[in-house]
Amino acid sequence: MKKVLALVLAALMVFSLVACSGSGKDETSAPDTSAPEEKATLVMATNAAFPPYEFKEGDSFAGIDVEIAGKIAEKLGMTLEIKDVEFGSIVGGVQTGKFDMGMAGMTVTDERLKSVNFSDSYATGIQVVIVKEDSAIKSLDDLKGDGSMKFGVQQDTTGDIYASDTVENGGYGKDNVVRYKTGADAVQALKTGKVDAVIIDNEPAKSFVSANEGLSILDGSWVEENYAIAIAKENTELLEKVNNALKELTADGTVKSIIDKYIPAE
Predict the structure, then answer these.
(1) 195-227: per-residue pLDDT in tens?
(2) How far apart are CA 67 and CA 54, in angstroms?
(3) DSSP symbol at 47
(4) Helix segments in the chain, DSSP class H
(5) Which residue of 6, 19, 182, 227 is most buried, as measured by CB atoms within 10 A?
(6) Coil, strand or helix: which one is 266?
(7) 146-177 tens-digit pLDDT
């Protein structure tokens, strides 16, 4: 009897050990083979001193680019996050992945295309010239790159790029161009006589002239160009998604309604 009891106890011990061993195996986590979660935030770099495309209203951002970016983010199922930075740092920040995209009334240029890709165009920009109302400069034909005039621009904008080019290429020479961090700084320099004219996009120009007495915009367009969204070259997936969203927002009239909200038809 004792021998039988000993055999039964031995069998129970073996069963217990096997059960414990099996329990340990079941509790081991299986490798996670699920797909990574989609990025939830769309980070947009801008320079919020360029009304009506981007500007601050208290602690919030507003403007054409801001609202279009918000609609793009909605289409992509993402939350828009805006970073207000110097205009000249936007392309570099997008290139290195610090920002997902850049929107700041930005024109496609050969130089910028060396660093980033651009979306389809979503708006047309016109470069104009602001002068004092009592200025001897009465038309675009009066502008000279012979050293007799100084031109204020926002640094790294197309106004800066084009104006700084040689006279032979339609510019005024870099020695005759004074570069400022913002368009508002350039306009202030014009008011105080540090420059003779400011070259800037038409819509911001209208805002600056409206807010500052004694200034006017010369008739005619200095340069016409298209605005687009800067995206890192390797981020082709985001570029495709943004272009698809822009097509949908253009087709359903959303882009036009946003632009018309800030730039009423004259």
Answers:
(1) 999 999 999 999 999 999 999 999 999 999 999
(2) 9
(3) -
(4) 2-26, 64-75, 90-95, 110-113, 158-163, 183-191, 202-211, 236-251, 254-262
(5) 227
(6) coil
(7) 999 999 999 999 999 999 999 999 999 999 99
